[in-house]
């Protein structure tokens, strides 16, 4: 299947799911999800795989075991590409009633990865490289996000140029588009491709300086 855009019915499907997150709604509208959300998202990922790597399309069901929110279905369709063997740094894309979102970086880091991240940020060669890349992305309209501490951790310069980066326990950049006609066209593919390319340097820095965890990962919920 060649990607031709995300049909408007897919966005309308998520509008309905936000209003009625029930098995009844899901069962009645599942063909719309399969044809207008999942299939075009898979087609988009297939076209990007040669450049970025094998994607993972997330399941539409929420894990409600440890959540007070027992609604059974996610109100978005997400997918991620984790480059094989690199450990840290990934690309993400998401479709919802709010439109299209792309992101890249690290959404969660284990304790050994956080330690390596902080050492690299404090390094006088690698730290300025990350700061320059983050500044470039922010100037280009990306939102710089991630879990942050209230204060710079002890043992690091609390007043230095990279104090804000040292507070991060995860780091990623995000760009969002509200619903627009071009989402229903092949332009959506090009927007994702161009955006993911713009995140290549950030992901490379994270892969080179943070890498994969050497400990036991936290349980996924």
UniProtKB/TrEMBL annotation:
Domain of life according to the entry: Bacteria
Name of a matching Pfam family: DUF2461
Residue ranges that the Swiss-Prot or TrEMBL entry lists as coiled coil: none
Database matches in NCBIfam families: TIGR02453 family protein
Name of this chain's protein: TIGR02453 family protein
């Amino acid at each position: 299947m060649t990607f031709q855009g995300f049909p408007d019915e897919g966005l309308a499907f998520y509008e309905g799911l936000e209003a009625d997150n029930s098995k009844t709604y899901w069962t009645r509208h599942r063909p719309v999800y399969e044809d207008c959300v999942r299939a075009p998202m898979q087609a988009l990922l297939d076209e990007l795989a040669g450049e970025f790597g094998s994607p993972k399309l997330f399941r539409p069901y929420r894990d409600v075991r440890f959540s007070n929110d027992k609604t059974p279905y996610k109100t978005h369709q997400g997918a991620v590409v984790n480059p094989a063997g690199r450990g840290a740094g990934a690309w993400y894309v998401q479709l919802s009633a709010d439109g299209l979102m792309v992101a890249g970086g690290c959404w969660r880091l284990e304790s050994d990865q956080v330690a390596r991240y902080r050492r690299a940020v404090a390094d006088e060669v690698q730290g300025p490289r990350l700061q320059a890349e983050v500044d470039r992305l922010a100037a280009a309209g990306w939102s710089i996000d991630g879990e942050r501490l209230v204060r710079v951790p002890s043992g690091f310069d609390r007043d230095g140029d990279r104090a804000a980066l040292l507070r991060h326990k995860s780091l990623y950049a995000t760009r969002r588009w509200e619903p627009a006609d071009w989402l229903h066209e092949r332009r959506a593919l090009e927007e994702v491709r161009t955006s993911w390319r713009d995140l290549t340097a950030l992901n490379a820095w994270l892969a080179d300086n943070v890498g994969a965890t050497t400990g036991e990962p936290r349980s996924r919920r």
